[in-house]
Design a protein that fits this description.
Blueprint lengths: L9 E7 L6 H10 L3 H8 L5 H7 L11 E8 L5 H10 L4 E2 L12 E4 L7 H10 L4 E4 L6 H12 L4 E4 L10 H4 L7 E5 L2 E2 L2 H16 L3 E6 L5 E8 L4 E7 L7 E5 L3 E4 L4 H18 L6 H19 L4 E3 L7
Helix pairs in contact: 2-3, 2-4, 8-10
């Protein structure tokens, strides 16, 4: 089937998984529906938030018209046994031994893993087969792989990547209309876990408020506890403290006219909106935001890593090259 797919039925393959991330379970369930007992059995201990937010939803909120997850494959942190558990929990008909076994049997692929350094290798077979692919955040965490992915896109590969927190229900309306706030002076966006994996959640949730034009990044923390400062050409400064065991109080925006904190617990809304935007892209060929924004955000993640590794120095985003 030629890209874009129009109104044709779409068979999706899902790749997974990595430590601390069970998106293959939840995303497959959002699209296919799920077996509550099986989902609870395999996620309630290690990923307890998944059955909680899935169980809050009425049955009619599950599913994307004309789309089905038909294949799943886990390599790396978990292998076939866990993929079979995912398949039972989310009504996925096929489990493959190798990701390449999906080629010829799926129309598009979701790379539902959050280790950016693995994404080029995970995605390469599908890019070479001209299969559209969604890459979970972060797109990548290093300059060489960023250059590879940008070259793929320059050559016409249909690739999309985003953080679900771009679609945070409480904050999303302000991306288009924030006039009552006035000029934004400062943003605080605490986040859990590590900069390499979850930093993109913090970055992408606030990026549409300011738009392109981040100038520098400085990571004053460590791998275990990041303390990232960023500066936007508009004059706005951003602070992102994060670490394992942290929680977030949402995004606090200090502006000329008001101070507001945006937070909600509707993970289902954010994840489904993210998946709907990918489906819209592969049906129409139109992105909901420019790929250049995804590239700039990847540069921010890379700059934060470089700053930490190079004596906590200020790293200018322009130092990171995508071509």
């Amino acid at each position: 089937m030629n890209f874009p797919f129009g109104d044709n039925p779409i068979r999706l393959g899902v790749l997974g998984m990595t430590e601390g991330n069970a998106h293959p379970f939840s995303w497959s369930a959002i699209i296919n529906g799920y077996d509550k007992k099986e989902m609870h059995r395999w996620t309630s201990e290690l990923y307890p938030t998944i059955p909680v937010y899935l169980n809050r939803q009425p049955e009619e909120t599950f599913g994307i018209e004309g789309v089905k997850v038909t294949h799943v494959c886990f390599t790396g942190y978990e292998e076939r046994n866990m993929a079979e558990n995912c398949a039972r929990a989310a009504f996925v008909e096929n489990v493959t031994e190798k990701p390449e076994d999906m080629i010829g049997n799926v129309d598009a692929v979701i790379c539902a893993t959050d280790v950016g350094s693995e994404h080029v290798n995970r995605c390469r077979p599908f890019v070479e087969a001209r299969i559209p692919i969604f890459i979970d955040k972060p797109l990548t965490d290093n300059e060489n792989d960023l250059k590879t992915i940008v070259r793929w896109v320059d050559e016409g590969a249909p690739i999309m990547s985003s953080s679900s927190l771009r679609y945070l229900k409480s904050l999303e309306p302000y991306y288009a209309n924030k006039y009552e706030l006035g000029k934004i002076r400062y943003i605080l966006s605490p986040m859990a876990k590590y900069w390499e994996t979850y930093g993109m959640h913090a970055v992408e949730s606030i990026y549409p408020l300011l738009g392109p034009g981040f100038e520098w990044v400085q990571n004053l923390g460590t791998y275990e506890r990041a303390m990232v400062q960023m500066h936007h050409f508009s004059g706005c400064d951003v602070s992102i403290p994060m670490g394992y065991g942290f929680t977030t109080n949402g995004v606090t925006v200090i502006a000329e006219n008001e101070v507001r904190t945006f937070s909600d617990g509707d993970s289902f809304y954010a994840f489904k909106k993210q998946l709907l935007k990918f489906v819209e892209y592969i049906r129409t060929g139109k992105r909901d935001h420019p790929f250049s924004e995804t590239v700039e955000m990847a540069k921010i993640i890379i700059a934060g890593i470089r700053s930490r590794n190079e004596g906590n120095r200020r790293v200018y985003v322009s130092e990171i090259k995508e071509r």
